[in-house]
Amino acid sequence: MTAIAAPAEQALWRDNERCYRAVASRDARFDGQFITAVRTTGIYCRPSCPALTPRQENVRFYPTAAAAQAAGFRACRRCLPDAVPGSPEWNVRADLAARAMRLIADGVVEREGVPGLARRLGYSERQLGRVLTAELGAGPLALARAHRAHSARLLIELSELPLADVAFAAGFASVRQFNDTIREVFARTPSQLRTAAAAARRRAGAAEPEAGTAGTRLSLRLPFRPPFDAAGLLGFFAARAVPGVESVDEHSYARTLRLPHGAATVTLTPQDGHVRCDLRLADVRDLGAAVTRARRLLDLDADPEAVARVLATDPALAPAVAATPGIRVPGAADGFELVLRAMLGQQVSVAAARTAAGRLTAALGEPVPWQPDLLLFPTAETVAERGHEVLRGPKRRTDAILGAAAALASGDVDVHVGRDPAELRAELLALTGIGPWTADYVLMRVLGAPDVLLTGDLVLRKGAAALSIADDIPALTERAQAWRPWRSYAGMYLWRSSQA
Q1: What residue stretches are annotated with the HTH araC/xylS-type domain (predicted)?
Q2: CA–CA separation, 180 vs 406, rounded Å?
């Protein structure tokens, strides 16, 4: 059963009193959920900025950095308001604005322009612009400009790329546009940003960035809202890691990525207050997409306190919530990969599904250029054409997997983060071999849908029984109404309880 609920209450950034209380208390839980702009200084900040709290009559609140920039404010040098977790609202909501934000963060505007963004969302450019301006205070070009500025700052500070190359890698149309935007947003030139970052590294004794013909290496800090159940995520990925594509140890999760402009590898290491993200990119234009996918893999934009407030009201779930604070819903790096792996996992054990995916990848995957023992998961096109050479098992099951691969390869079904959940679910269910469990599992992990409970999952129902929650589907469905809009997270607690 799937339900995606939009927040019933007014958007947080429109509640001046609540936002100002968060700013006055420097509450870091609100970082990324709204932007604080100070009229007298012309600067916008994150809510927890350590600077002197401005007077309430001088403060304006915006939903995004792009809206603050469009209103003429520049970014605070002290708190770096673009270096915060993203708003959890984009995952909770399934409306047009939220879906557009997810695609903009993935770099769709840089690659396909506003027409491509509108086409993926199924709206006209005019209608899309009108909705985004009304909801977010900025149109798609302004939102994409803010995304480009953030990507450019990372490349300026963390790489040795010539600044002209940084401009085009970040998606700017010209060096002049790049220079003007960086000065306007950060009140510094690109050269000044690079000089300041190099001085900060020297003071901290950090290694200098490196680049070479075998890909550009970058190391970033990905923020999250604590608490953060890192051990649970690593355990989930370890049980399902596909040989050659993924590897997990007690400290980190690593995998290959197939990005729009080439291959990449990422290693994610949870640390105190952030996740260290070590990237190697064949093409630096993929930086924004790589970071976005890394964040979605670990569900770093979640608001764990909001989840806990709802789930802890159930007396049966409350002990599990208290024992494992900050549980996350694991995401996915690629829509087709997740669909295929979910189909391979139907009615078999996790270990058997992992073996089948590993065999398919070993035969049809492509080696990463700088490390041939690492493989990119095969594309839908490759599986549709050659999957019959590798897939084993009943012909009906094999034909279903090949049919799904052909549908995704042709574009008849497009699985990406900007899809409307109900429409995508219907398209998946129309494919032979995909039932409600598989469709809902894809929504939960690819779209980050927070309110999906896999009531047909036997392991999840075993966990419900372990917590003395009725495990038959009608009773569990009725009980779960009280867990909305966080039923995906409740499901993770039930899965965890089944292993206790």
Answers
A1: 98-196
A2: 45
Nearest to 255 by CA among 329, 337, 355: 337
| 227-278 confidence digits (pLDDT tens) | 999 999 999 999 999 999 999 999 999 999 999 999 999 999 999 999 999 9
Q: Are 404 and 433 in contact (CB under 8 A)?
A: yes
Whole-number Å distance between alpha carbons of 254 and 401? 27
pLDDT in tens, 85-101: 888 887 778 899 999 99
* Inter-residue contact 57 to 23 (CB < 8 Å): no
> CB-based contacts of 346: which residues, under 8 Å, 6+ apart?
397, 433, 435, 437, 438
The whole-angstrom distance between residue 434's C-alpha and the CA centroid of its chain comes to: 24
Q: Is the pTM of this model over 0.70?
A: yes
Catalytic residue among 45, 49, 76, 277: 45
* DSSP label of 265: E
* CA–CA separation, 213 and 265 (whole Å): 15
Q: What is the mean pLDDT of the chain?
A: 93
Q: Tell me, what amino acid is at 373?
A: D
- What is the sign of the dihedral through the CA atoms of 221, 225, 227 and 233? negative
Phi-psi region of 299 (alpha: psi -120 to 50; beta: other; left: phi over 0): left
Structure-block tokens of residue 150: 């953030």
Can you say whether residue 230 is alpha, beta or left, with left for phi > 0 and alpha for psi between -120 and 50 degrees? alpha
The verdict on whether 457 is a catalytic residue reads yes
- Cα–Cα separations (whole angstroms), residue 191 to 69, 162, 197, 216: 21, 10, 10, 20
Closest CA to 367 of 278, 284, 258: 258
Residue in 31, 286, 451, 457 annotated catalytic: 457
Contacts of 494 (CB under 8 A, 6+ apart): 460, 461, 463, 464, 467, 469
- What token pair was written down for 286? 């993929």
Crossing angle of helices 230-240 and 350-364, in 10° steps, is 60
- The distance between the two most distant Cα atoms of the chain, rounded to a whole number of Å, is 70
Residue 312 CB coordination number (10 Å): 15
Beta strands in 363-429 (DSSP E): 366-368, 371-376
Q: pLDDT tens digits for 359-414?
A: 999 999 999 999 999 999 999 999 999 999 999 989 999 999 999 999 999 999 99
User: Cα 33 vs. chain centroid, distance in angstroms?
Assistant: 15
Look up 31 and say whether it is catalytic. no
